[in-house]
Amino acid sequence: MGTKMTIISTKGTLDWAYPPFILASTAAALDYEVSIFFTFYGLTLLKKKITATVSPLGNPAMPMKMPMGPKWFRNISWNIPNIVQANIPGYESLATVLMKKTIANNGVATIEQLRSLCMEAGVKLLACQMTMELFGFHQSDFIDGCEFVGAASYLDIASDAKINLFV
């Protein structure tokens, strides 16, 4: 193996699930030795069933005019302020459905597919033990193949890495 790289994944929303898996799978394809440390809400990306949603609320950079969903739906302007989004029942569910449709329409792999690709490529998936205990999760809640470690173990791995990313 060549260069060592670590990634800290702290967010569990659909849009934040992609960067660590895309970066890790790409680096592994380039023969990097890669570890992803999943902590706080990022830890949910290691659960057997990923239930990540899109949350436009609090994400002012989300382009509400991006072409989401089916083709007939793409020309609708979605410039809706955050304060309004918070008060529309089902808005987050709608945004999630539209984003997943957009992902499928563009041939982008699902989070589960990217996660599997990472595992096949030898990426180490490190689950934060403290976060697991904090949120009341059990090892049986998570996929096979991940390692349960503490922050000290992650730091030991990161200290040998040339590249350390926080996403």
Q: Biggest sheet, open or closed, and with what strands and sense?
A: 5 strands, parallel
Structural class: alpha/beta
Low-confidence stretches are: none
CATH architecture of the domain at 4-51 and 110-166: 3-Layer(aba) Sandwich
Q: Distance N terminus to C terminus?
A: 24 Å
Sum up the overall morphology in one term: globular
Note down, in words, how this protein is organized:
The protein is α/β, with parallel strands linked by helices and 167 residues long. It has a domain at 4-51 and 110-166: 3-Layer(aba) Sandwich (Hypothetical Protein Ychn, Chain: A). Helices cover 36% and strands 14% of the residues. A five-stranded parallel β-sheet has the order 4-3-2-1-5, with helices on both faces. Helix 1 (14-29) runs parallel beside helix 4. The chain is globular, with a radius of gyration of 17 Å. The mean pLDDT is 86.
Features:
5-stranded parallel beta sheet, Hypothetical Protein Ychn, Chain: A, 167 residues
Q: Helices, strands, pairings?
A:
Layout: E1 4-9, H1 14-29, E2 33-38, H2 82-85, H3 91-105, H4 111-120, E3 124-128, H5 129-134, E4 147-149, H6 151-159, E5 163-166
Parallel strand pairs: 1-2, 1-5, 2-3, 3-4
Helix pairs in contact: 1-4
